[in-house]
From TrEMBL:
Transmembrane parts of this sequence: none
Organism: Listeria monocytogenes
Positions of the Siphovirus-type tail component RIFT-related domain: 27-131
Name of the protein in question: Phage tail protein
Gene3D superfamilies from the UniProt entry: 2.40.30.200, Galactose-binding domain-like (2.60.120.260)
Pfam families named in the record: Sipho_tail
Domain of life of the source: Bacteria
Entries under InterPro entries matching the protein: Dit_BPSPP_N, Siphovirus-type_tail_N
Amino acid sequence: MYNNSINEFGFSFAGSHSSLYNLKIIDIRRVVIPPSSEIVQNIEGMDGAVYQGNNIGQRPFEIDVKLVSNTHESRLADLHDISDWLWSDKDNEYSLIFDDEPDLEWFAHVSNISEVNRTKANGFFTIAFNCSDVLGYMEKETVQVAVNPFIITPQGTRRSNPIISMIPYANTRKIAVVQDEEDRWAYLGEDVDPETGNIGVDKSPLVYQDECNTLAPWTTLSSSNIPFALENGFIYNDAKMISNHTEFRIGSKNGAQFWGGNGTTTENWHGAAVMKMMDAELDNWSVKFVCHNYTYYPRAKGKVELYLLDKNKSKIGVMTLKKNSVKSSELILEVKLFSGSKNTFVYSGTGPTKKGKTVTKTVRVKLGGKTVKVKVKGTNKTKTEQAWSDVKIAETTTTSMFSNFYGEIILEKRGNKFTLLVNKYNKSRSQDPKFTPIRITKTLNDYKGLSLSGVAYYNAKMDIYEDNPKHAKGYSQQGMSMSFLRVNKLFENTPSGVDYVANSRDEVKFNAEDKHVYINGTIQQKNWAIGGELPIFDGGHETTLAFSHSPYEQIYDGASHNLIRNSTWKEGKKFWTNGDANGNPYRISNPEADKPDSSIFSIMAHTNAAAQNASDLIFVEKGKEYLVSCDVRLTKNDKSSDIFFCVRTFPDEEYTNAAAVATSTFYIRKSDYPNWTINQWYRLTFSFTADDNWVRIIPYNSDVINGTRVDYREVKMTDNLTDIIWSPAPIETECAEIYIEYRPTRG
């Protein structure tokens, strides 16, 4: 902790505070501006010179410190610790924060340490730091862009390098940002292939995407219903998979992560698993698995796995990131394929390792109890006392390429060619500059026939000595989760044309800090337009940014998101299913003059009560209230057979539109609106509470007697209970969420 008293304070460098090393600050010498030298050009025959600015050098800090020690031996020990703390033989710079300026962070390296002068047991010396980046950084600012173009006045007094994130709602072939005043622009993608003239084509159609914010679409697997064999593992039914709205991870028991069992399963993995089957069988496919596996205790064991399944729910592959040794912090990545009795690795290994120190820890463990006699008020009684013992356990801090991994593992299949791509993220979900991305392609003829229809996620641990309840030793378990999943259809022979540069809900980052553009953490080079320059900010000075995509709320006047696809039937019956009514009484007609962009869906007069048009299933939050609105026009208002709209909820996305399998049905009747005039448009509005996780919105005409036709247009469902104004589903728009992150600076 920082010492913030008036007379004593310290500093933090590389994450450690000076007080940890018994240092007291005598003085900090700062400069007003970094050392500089003039750039001038002398011209013969001209008085004076041509001034061309200054060369700015590094910013220095000199800190006079006192090492407070009680003995000569403790002083020497502290000096060795300080040497380990400050020593660096690499070209890295580390965070430097002074207690008297806690809101300002510098990035520095140690340039010199003076000789130690000794007074009794104490020592005095000077630490010299240099900052190659001469600016100090304040806390990060995050701004959500509400309008396009967007005017911003950055905080701070000097230049800063923003990170601009754009998350398009729909697939897009181009995405860009422009900074007008600076004539800077960054452009990714293209509309037309300049060589062939081919227009865009989707070369990898999206089949399934999950941001891991709910487990509702997934099936929980148990020891009795799992349809495939885990890799040296079991499911313990008392372990639970949970979602915390950003990731799938193991649940807790008594305040701690709990993978099930009694702490004695030391030879097998155990935990929880969930499965997701898709309405597709893909001969060629791509699976993107974003996960993390962090080590907080070098002896802990844990793994995350994504199983790839065929239509019979048999495993055809598995992607594994595991720590299975108590002797180091190394993680192993395995990507394995299965075909009948055959199996093969696309990759298996730790990558390069970094040797760490091996230490022996003493763990105090229970040995059981012994019975002793004690006197209580002069009476001899017996009681059981707990016996303890100290056990020596070895551990090492050796790490591997995948240690503390947070990133993406992608496996692609095109015919008999399998490609593995692995990329590690930093905390801002950009590519970790210290990690060299992996790309491996193998030709495997025996595995050409592997077709993908589903996936399963497994989160597991293996017990160690400390887990045994007899030993009663708590420790920090592995931190493990899945935070994103995407499945795409691929083609063995890639179709010609321009591919999407970003898919729906991809995160595109224009990162001016490291001068790269990322999509979901992967550096983009192929589609990056030559000549572009990323925006820069000048603290305190207004600047304008323009974007290729605009915020949804701006384009649609603050409207909330419509959860229904093709809500104007402009794309025909896409995302809708007609009921089996006699005579096929369904019509889609051209827009009328008052709403020229909205087609009209009609259920004509008919003789079959099953005349209904159901939307595709929509995922909702169970227990939440939703608002439905729709333009409705009745040609008759007879009440004898009067249902004209309904909503059904379902427990699973595999259910068809049938009242018999629905959790519940909400009917809207003509008798609820007795004052409606026939042949006139009205905006129907009603709310319902979802009692399950899947919903269908259903235009419905139950009149089989009186010959009523019902017309519908501009249907909307939203979680905003006051918004009845129609707007399209975001995925059908050229809109995006846009965020700006930057760290204000000072000189």
